[in-house]
Amino acid sequence: MAKIERNDIHIISRHSNWSESEIKARLQRDVYHDKEAWQKFLNLLFISLGVGFTTAGILFFFAYNWADLHKFAKLGLIEGLIIAITAVILFSKWQLNVKNILLTGASMIVGVLFAVFGQIYQTGANAYDFFLGWTLFIFLWVVVSNFAPLWLIFIILINTTVILYIEQVAQNWPEIIPFTLLFGINTVFLFIALIGEKLSADINPPTWFTNILALAAASFGTIAICYGIFDDYQASFLILVIATALLYAYGIYYGIQTKSIFYLSIIPFSLIVIGSALLISWSDDGGMFFVISLFIILSVTFLIANLIKLQKRWVN
């Protein structure tokens, strides 16, 4: 049975003989967070802030004392800290969430280690090598922990590596290729998160995580299609359009099934942007810009009105 929510109680109270005390007791039991829940939240919050500030402090420490430190001290301090954090994670009896937060902090410190190593030995100016090494060396931690924030950092590192590689090495690629590649990467991770949730109970990504992936995939797909429209429909453009159409169709289906306004918002907004780009590609005179402005106003108004209507239907 699904967990009862605040709106459910309000609807039942309007159509039943519940007293005020019964409604208050039901809200207190099923909706409001108790003292234990708040203590757990604050515990994780302060641990996360502590790990984040500690990582930032390590960065500032090396930046301020860089000239006065021997290279052995620079590398030894960071490696010792990573080993100490890993030992605490392996041998302590702390809660799993606390260990995952510490592991996320250790993953960030791995990036500091690679940055310090590159500065000491001048390993080159290709920044994508740095992010690629960082990504590979935390891969096992990401898979073992199955922790959404750490997965998000991992995916950001992959996107950053691809972007920097294209900027520094594959400079001759058509402009549509980088965004198509990024669209594909984020789409794959999104499908793994959504479909894996149904295949295995161990894969249970939070909503914010899948929403970020969906937003990234829709953004890169929209930009890639707009580039394809203005580049006279290159060979890869047809594949991109088909892939985007399939993703958007599944996103609409998933949004309706899960009653998620998020998916039913970003996909139509993406289509509005693509439609506007298509109109501009046909003509860029003043009359066409008036038509595009009218198209955007009417389509956005129609979309918001229908989303509000759909939200009310789901609530009631």
Automatic annotation (TrEMBL):
Entry keywords, A to Z: Membrane, Transmembrane, Transmembrane helix
Protein name: DUF2157 domain-containing protein
Source organism, top-level taxon: Bacteria
Pfam families tied to this protein: DUF2157
Transmembrane segments: 41-66, 72-92, 101-121, 127-144, 151-170, 176-196, 208-230, 236-254, 261-282, 288-308
Keyword NADP: no
Domain DUF2157 positions: 39-151
InterPro entries, A to Z: DUF2157 (IPR018677)
